[in-house]
Every structure is written in C-alpha cells, then in structure tokens.
Write a structure and sequence with these properties.
This protein folds into three domains: about 90 residues, Integrase, DNA-binding domain (Double Stranded RNA Binding Domain, 2-Layer Sandwich); about 100 residues, Tyrosine recombinase, N-terminal domain (DNA polymerase, domain 1, Orthogonal Bundle), CATH 1.10.150.130; about 90 residues, no CATH class. Helix content is about 45%, strand content about 10%. Strand 1 and strand 2 form a beta hairpin.
C-alpha cells in the first residue's frame, strides 16, 4: 500500500504546500503552483543508470489507483526489458507515421522502385482501404478492422458485386504495408498477419492451365495454316514468348540494343521488368533464327517489333497495336 490516499490527494492539490509528494516506489504526486496536478514516476535506466522523470498524466485523467497500476507496469518493463519510458515517448512524438495513410505514402515510394505495377496497387489501396481506415492511427487498427474490409470485398457491399480475388489482393497488400511499418519501428504489430486466403476471398485457382507439349504443337500448326489472318510477325512473337518465358510487353516493347545476338543473350533491364530486376535471358538456336528474321523484317528500326501502323500516340513498336 502506498503513502497516499484519495482524500490526501485532494487535500494536497488544494493546499499546494509543496511540489512533490511521494506515494512510494518512485511514484509522485506533483502539485505545481501553476498548472494542473499530475503523476510522475522517477526511475533509473538499467543501461545508463541515469535518473529519469516520466509524466504519467494529469490527476484529472488518472486516479490514484490507475496511476499506481501504470507505474507498476512501467517499473516491470524497465526491469525486465530495459525499456526507457522517456525515450519511448520521444519516439512516439517524433514518429511521422501517425495514420495508415502516412505509412502507406512511405511504403508506396518504396514500391515505385520495386515493381512496375505500383500504380495499380495504389489505386487498389485508395479504392478499398484509404476511405475506411486510412486516417486511423496505426496503434488503433485491429484484426477486426482488417476482417471487415476483407469480408465486405469478398461478399460484396453496396452496389459492388463479390470480388474474392480483390479481397485476397487487399489482404496481401495490407500485410506488406504493416510489415513495412514494423521494419521502420513505427508499429510493433501487424493486424493483417493472421489472415489467410480462406479468411478473405478463398483459395485461388490458376486462371489457365499450362499448355501441354501436344497443345503447343497443335497451336502453332493451326497458326501456320492461317497466314492471312495471323501475320508472320505475330507468329514469331508467340514463338519467342514461349522460348524466352517473358511477359508480353517485355518482348513486344523490346529495342534491339537489349539483344546480344553473338553471345546469344537478351539483357532485359530492370526498368522494364515487373519486379524491377534485370534479367539475362539465354537464347536458343531457334530463338536466334527467329530474331535474325525479325531483324530483316524490322527494316532498320530500333524496335524488334516496329509498328506497321502509327497510332495517335505515335508509339513506334508493335505494342502500339496491342489493346
């Protein structure tokens, strides 16, 4: 039991006979001549052995019992974990990331350097998350908030239909955002981490099964049978996509200077890949023959697949013709 009592506290605040009144174990009632009375904890930091004074809060907001409970928690954290409450409070006050929107802004800057689809991800955040919990403090967001967002998207809300795949996308994005906050030491908890696809839109199945070797042969056989409907350039594009295992626009927007034909390698730079990582792609004998044919067909163009019809935006490679 401490030295102070509720009636004593009221009396001391009224009299203001002195500034500091000890309750024991480092807890003090502070009654300054000017300003409100408040609770203060004195302690010694384990690491530096410095004497510190930590303001718990005003007496109007903290009862004697509440102040004792808080002081006990702080003393335990200081002893067991080496926590310095004064320094922890400074970190919180200096933290520029108050809300989820603040944290996302920093996360998005990082994603701009990491992936090519960062604009799509930003649109997803603004449509599905920002208006719900974007202005909420990081320490106030709980798993229940995440669950409500994921379920609404998966089941449909308002005039929006069920969108299970989008729900899974949002789940993964929120996990990455809060993980980013943990790395920056601006939050200690990821409220999205417990969730799995079954808690959002469900397990996803591949949109298309991979083609078998027999199906690939049949596909190209049929293409060769309709040259009037499917040009030679388009045929070679399909063949190279399979031979190099690249994305459509990585190939169709490729300039010739990326290809080192004598050394049989395609140097795909990081600014043209989804993951923002440079890739060296080996070229097979067949791929080299197709590229040599395309070199002739491109008629000196800087692009592997130059446009055969200039678009309104004046794109000068084959991607101008891709919807």
């Amino acid at each position: 039991m401490g030295n102070l009592h509720d009636k004593t506290v009221k009396k001391l605040i009224k009299e203001k006979s002195s500034v500091r009144h000890s309750d024991g174990d480092g807890l003090y009632l502070m009654t300054p001549k000017r300003g409100d009375a408040y609770w203060m904890l004195r302690y010694t930091t384990p690491a530096t052995k410095l004497r510190r004074e930590y303001t718990i809060g005003k007496v109007d907001d903290w009862s004697l019992a509440d102040a004792r409970d808080e002081a006990a928690k702080l003393r335990l954290a200081i002893k067991r974990e080496g926590v310095d409450p004064v320094q922890e409070r400074k970190k919180v006050n200096q933290n520029p990331f108050k809300t989820l929107n603040d944290l996302y802004a920093d996360y998005h800057q990082l994603r701009q350097r990491q992936i090519a689809t960062h604009a799509k991800e930003k649109s997803l955040y603004e449509r599905e998350v920002a208006w719900r919990i974007g202005k909420v403090g990081l320490d106030k967001i709980r798993p229940l908030d995440i669950s409500e967002i994921l379920r609404d998207i998966a089941n449909g809300y308002g005039d929006k239909p069920p969108r299970p795949t989008i729900s899974n996308d949002v789940m993964r994005m929120l996990k990455r955002i809060f993980d980013h906050g943990i790395k920056l030491d601006v939050t200690q908890f990821n409220p999205a981490s417990p969730f799995r696809p079954k808690d959002a839109g469900g397990e996803e199945q591949a949109a298309n099964d991979p083609m078998t070797e027999t199906e690939v042969v049949e596909f190209f056989t049929k293409l060769r049978a309709i040259p009037a409907q499917f040009s030679r350039e388009n045929y070679l594009a399909c063949a190279l996509l399979i031979a190099t295992c690249t994305r459509k626009m990585e190939l169709l927007a490729a300039p010739w200077h990326e290809f080192d034909l004598p050394n049989r390698v395609w140097h795909l730079p990081k600014n043209r890949t989804k993951k923002r990582r440079a890739i060296d792609i080996p070229l097979s004998d067949a791929a080299l023959l197709w590229l040599e044919e395309l070199k002739i067909r491109s008629c000196g163009s800087e692009w592997v697949f130059p446009a055969r019809r200039i678009s309104k935006k004046a794109r000068t490679h084959m991607s101008a013709r891709i919807p």
